[in-house]
Structure formats: C-alpha cells, structure tokens
Design a protein that fits this description.
The protein has about 180 residues and is mostly beta strands. It has one domain: Lipopolysaccharide (LPS) transport protein A like domain (lipopolysaccharide transport protein A fold, Sandwich), CATH 2.60.450.10. Helices cover about 0% and strands about 60% of the residues. The strands form two sheets. Strands 1, 2, 3, 4, 5, 6, 7, 8, 9, 10 and 13 form an eleven-stranded antiparallel beta sheet that branches.
C-alpha cells in the first residue's frame, strides 16, 4: 500500500491559509491556437495556454476543454480541463507543477500527475500525484506514477524514488 501525505495547506501561518475556490466563476483563456470540435463537445487549445478562474491560473503547453453540450447565457458549460506539457497551477500563496493535470469542474478537484512539486510559503513537497480539493483547500500527495525528477526552485533537479514523497518544510526563526 502506498503511503500518502495529507497537507491541510494550513501548514504556514493563518494568513497563508487557502480559501475556498469559486469554481462557479467564469473561465477566461488564451492560447496561440484553438481548434473547436463541436461534435465531440470539446475545444483543443495549444501553445502557451493560459486559463484563469477567479484567483487561480492554470498554464500548459496544450489543453483540452470538454463541455456538456448545454449552453447557458450563450456560453458552453465546461465540465473538465485536461492539460499537458509543463503544467503550472497558481493559487494565492501556492504553486503546483507537473507534467499533466485534470481539473474536474463538477467534483471541484484538480489532479496533477508526473513529477509533481507543490510549493507554499517556503515548504516544498515532491511526489508522483497531487490531488487538490478546491472546496476544502486540502491536498494529498503520493508517490505513485513517479517517473524521473522535478525541477526545483533555482533550476536544480530532484529525483523522487518510485513510491516516495519527499520535501522540505521551512522552520520559523526563533530568538
């Protein structure tokens, strides 16, 4: 059985605590190219993809936007975002990086896989898979699906052995 690390993301002082994400906010996007596949109820964004919803941004090389086929107020109802290629998710006081990510809007969950690094307030955790619950602000990192290493701040590479979660927690300065 794989061990998992549960971070309440309240590790740092209360000012850094994550607030509930507004998953009902509109999703704004930008990309070098978009291909609409209406019969499949999806759009494929490629090249410098940037998506913003409320205070969260998601950047990737490529993203598939799946929608339900229903149109409300002139906009298709997005149900899922699949991102690949240097994925970065930024939330207030928190940054997560991976090779791939899935944002399930119905469940309000982001799952990131492949050389995952989560950084918040000087704390860094590396693993194979990260699941962020946007309602609670909690994250679970485990060592599954780890293949290779992740680029750490400063450009160095850290290698996470298969099945292991590694990291660094900052220690408050004491007098």
């Amino acid at each position: 059985m794989k061990r998992a690390v549960l971070l309440s993301l309240l590790i740092a002082a209360g000012a850094d605590a994550q607030t509930r994400h507004n998953s009902n906010a509109p999703i704004d996007f930008g990309a070098d190219q978009i291909e609409l596949q209406d019969r499949a109820n999806r759009a494929v964004l490629s090249g410098n993809v940037a998506v913003r919803q409320a205070e969260m941004t998601l950047n990737a090389g490529r993203m598939t936007v799946n929608y339900t086929g229903q149109v409300v107020g002139g906009s298709p109802q997005v149900s899922r975002l699949d991102a690949a290629g240097g994925v970065t998710v930024n939330r207030p006081a928190q940054t997560a990086r991976s090779q791939y990510a899935v944002y399930d809007l119905n469940k309000r969950v982001i799952t990131m896989i492949g050389a995952v690094t989560l950084t918040q307030s000087g704390n860094t955790v590396n693993g194979g898979r990260l699941t962020i619950n946007l309602d609670t602000g909690r994250a679970v990192i485990d060592g599954s699906s780890v293949r290779g290493g992740a680029a750490a701040p400063g450009g160095t590479t850290t290698t996470t052995p298969s099945g292991r979660v590694t990291g660094t927690f900052s220690v408050p300065k004491r007098n």
